[in-house]
Design brief:
It is built from two helices and 55 strands. By secondary structure, it is an all-beta fold. The chain has a domain of about 90 residues: Sandwich (Immunoglobulin-like), CATH 2.60.40. The protein is globular and about 70 Å long. This is Right-handed parallel beta-helix repeat-containing protein.
C-alpha cells in the first residue's frame, strides 16, 4: 500500500531523547520496539522519521501486475488478415483509419508506416512477426546447415559484453519452436540450443536437429515507424524483428500512444521514442529484447508509465556501461517514467544519460537488475522519488564491481540539481552512490556535480563493502555544500561498521554525522525484507 508511515521512539514522560531504534512492520504501520544498546549510537536528538514508503503505490512483482494485450479494449475497424500485406493495407487507407489485425501470425516483410491519427490494433491473439521460417536444412558433420538466408556482412555497432567475440550486434536471431537460441562466434562452438551464422559463406549452422520443429529467423528490422503524428498502437504482440542496436521494433513519433502491447524477442530495443514529444507508452509488457526494453531520444514531455520491462539484453550487450537493460533516456526534457515494474534486466534498470533535463522518475519498482537500479548521468533538474529499488547491481561481467564507483541502488553521476527523495533502497550492491567524474562539456557548459539533495529515503546496507556516499575524480572535486544527505533512515548490520564513504574516506554512522551529512537522519539496526508489493518490513536484529 502507499502512504508514508512514521515511527518514533519515546523514552517516557513528555520528553523525547536520543534513541537508535529497530522497527518492525505490524499490520500496515511501523512501530518502534525500543532503543538499541547505546554503544556506538550517535548522540543526537531523537527523530520523528518517515519510513520512506512511497506515497504512491508501486506496481507489484507478484504476477498480478496486468499489462499487454489482455488489458487492451476490443477492436472494431478495418480488418487486416494474416494473408494481407499489412504495410500496403495501411498505406492505401486514409488518415484516421482504425485497423484490426486478426488473430494469428502476421509476417511483416516491410515496415508499416501509419498515417496521422491511424490506429493499429489487434484482436486477441494477433502477432506481428519479423521472422521467416527456415525449412531447408541438411545434416553436416554433426550439425545442420542452411544457406542463402543471410544478408551481406555488415559492420559492428554498439558494445558487447564479450568484446573479443563481438557478435552481439548481429540481428538475425534464431528461434526453435519460439525458443530463443544462443549465437556463438565460431562453428566449432555450435551445440544443441546454439547456432552460428557465417555471413561470408551465407550459411547458418544449427546444433539442434530441426526435424519436426519450427525454426524461425529474424529478418525485417522494424515493425512500425513513421513521421505521422497521433498514431495509436494497441493490443498487439510484436516479436522477432532484427532491429539494429539502438533501433526499436516500434518507433514512436510525435503524440503517439502505444498501449497494452507485448513487445518481445526483438534484437535491439523493444520500443524507441525518437522526437516523440507528448508520446505515451503505457501498460505494455516489454521483455526479452536483445539489447534494451525502452529507449528515448530527443523527446519533450513523454510519458512512460505502468509498463513491465523485464529480462532484456538477451543478446549479450555490455551490461555495466552501454545501452543495455531496462529503460534508457537521453537528450530529453520534461515528462516522467512512473509506475513501471522494471526487473531482471541484464544492465541498468532505469537510466537517464546525456543531457536529460527536468526528468521525473517516480513510483517504479526496480528489482534485481544486473547494474544500477537507477542512474541519473550528465543531466540536470531531476527528481527521483517514491521508488522501490532492491537487489540491483550484483552483475559480475566486464566492468562490474562493488565500489561506489560501480554504482548502487541509485546512482547520481555528474549531474546538477537532482533530488533523490522518499525512496526505499534495499539490499543493493550499494545504497546511494553520488559520483563526480571528469566528463568534459556540453550544451550547458562544463559537466559538473552540483546541488544534489538526498532526503527521506530508507536505505538498507548490510555486509561486504556496501556503502552510501560520494566519490570524485581528482579533476572533479565536489565543493562543500553541493551534496546534502539528511532526514534519511539507514538500516544497518552494525553501528560500528563503515557503511558511509566520502571521497575515499570510510565512516561509521557516528563518524558520518561528524562530517555534516545526515545530521537529522536515523541509523537503525535490523534486517530489511521487501515483499512483492514494495512494502519493506524491518525486522529487529537477531542475536
Amino acid at each position: 500500500m502507499g502512504g508514508a508511515l512514521r515511527a518514533t521512539c519515546a523514552t517516557g514522560g513528555s520528553a523525547m531523547r536520543t534513541a537508535v531504534f529497530a522497527v518492525v512492520a505490524v499490520g500496515t504501520s511501523l512501530v518502534a520496539v525500543g532503543p538499541l544498546p547505546a554503544r556506538g549510537a550517535p548522540d543526537q536528538p531523537a527523530l520523528d522519521q518517515s519510513a520512506a514508503v512511497p506515497d504512491a503505490a508501486v506496481p507489484p512483482a507478484d504476477g498480478t501486475f496486468r499489462t499487454g494485450p489482455a488489458v487492451a479494449p476490443p477492436c472494431s475497424g478495418v480488418p487486416i488478415r494474416t494473408t494481407d500485406n499489412a504495410a500496403k493495407v495501411v498505406d492505401d487507407a486514409p488518415t484516421g483509419t482504425t485497423f484490426c489485425f486478426t488473430a494469428g501470425w502476421h509476417r511483416i516483410t516491410e515496415t508499416i508506416h501509419p498515417k496521422a491519427d491511424q490506429v493499429l490494433a489487434g484482436n486477441t491473439g494477433a502477432v506481428l512477426t519479423g521472422s521467416v521460417r527456415l525449412t531447408r536444412w541438411t545434416a553436416n558433420n554433426g550439425d545442420w546447415v542452411t544457406t542463402g538466408v543471410l544478408p551481406p556482412a555488415y559492420p559492428q555497432t554498439g558494445q558487447c559484453e564479450d568484446n573479443t567475440a563481438n557478435i552481439c550486434y548481429l540481428g538475425e536471431q534464431l528461434f526453435l519452436d519460439s525458443k530463443h537460441l544462443t549465437r556463438v562466434a565460431t562453428r566449432d562452438k555450435v551445440a544443441p540450443g546454439a547456432f552460428y551464422a557465417d555471413y561470408a559463406a551465407n550459411a547458418v549452422y544449427l546444433g539442434s536437429n530441426p526435424a519436426g520443429h519450427s525454426i524461425e529467423m529474424s529478418k525485417t528490422q522494424t515493425a512500425i515507424e513513421s513521421s505521422a503524428t497521433g498514431v495509436t498502437v494497441r493490443g498487439l504482440t510484436i516479436e522477432h524483428f532484427a532491429t539494429p542496436p539502438q533501433g526499436g521494433a516500434v518507433v514512436l513519433g510525435l503524440g503517439w500512444k502505444v498501449i497494452a502491447n507485448d513487445i518481445r524477442w526483438n534484437h535491439g530495443v523493444g520500443a524507441m521514442l525518437v522526437n516523440a514529444d507528448g508520446a505515451v507508452l503505457e501498460k505494455n509488457h516489454i521483455h526479452s529484447n536483445g539489447q534494451l526494453g525502452i529507449g528515448q531520444y530527443s523527446t519533450l514531455k513523454a510519458t512512460i508509465a505502468s509498463n513491465e520491462v523485464s529480462y532484456n539484453n538477451t543478446d549479450g550487450f555490455w551490461i555495466a556501461d552501454w545501452e543495455s537493460g531496462g529503460i534508457k533516456t537521453t537528450w530529453s526534457s520534461g515528462g516522467q517514467v512512473s509506475g513501471n515494474l522494471i526487473q531482471y534486466n541484464r544492465g541498468i534498470g532505469l537510466w537517464s544519460d546525456a543531457y536529460d533535463d527536468s526528468r521525473t522518475f517516480s513510483s517504479n519498482q526496480i528489482l534485481r537488475n544486473a547494474a544500477d537500479g537507477i542512474r541519473y548521468e550528465i543531466g540536470r533538474n531531476g527528481v527521483i522519488s517514491d521508488n522501490v529499488v532492491s537487489g540491483n547491481g550484483f552483475g559480475t561481467g566486464r566492468g562490474s564491481g562493488t565500489s561506489l564507483w560501480d554504482g548502487g541502488g541509485i546512482n547520481v553521476n555528474t549531474s546538477s540539481n537532482v533530488q533523490v527523495r522518499d525512496n526505499v533502497v534495499a539490499n543493493n550492491v550499494n545504497g546511494i552512490a553520488i559520483q563526480s567524474r571528469t566528463r568534459g562539456s556540453g550544451p550547458w557548459g562544463t559537466n559538473l556535480l552540483r546541488d544534489i539533495v538526498v532526503s527521506g529515503n530508507q536505505v538498507t546496507m548490510r555486509g561486504g563493502t556496501t556503502a552510501t556516499g560520494m566519490v570524485q575524480n581528482a579533476g572533479a572535486v565536489i565543493p562543500a555544500g553541493e551534496v546534502t544527505l539528511n532526514d534519511n533512515v539507514y538500516i544497518l548490520d552494525s553501528l560500528t561498521a563503515e557503511r558511509f564513504q566520502k571521497t575515499g574516506q570510510w565512516y561509521t554512522a557516528k563518524q558520518w554525522r561528524g562530517t555534516g551529512q545526515d545530521t537529522a537522519s536515523a541509523f537503525t539496526l535490523g534486517k530489511a525484507v521487501l515483499d512483492a508489493t514494495g512494502i519493506l518490513t524491518i525486522l529487529p536484529p537477531t542475536s
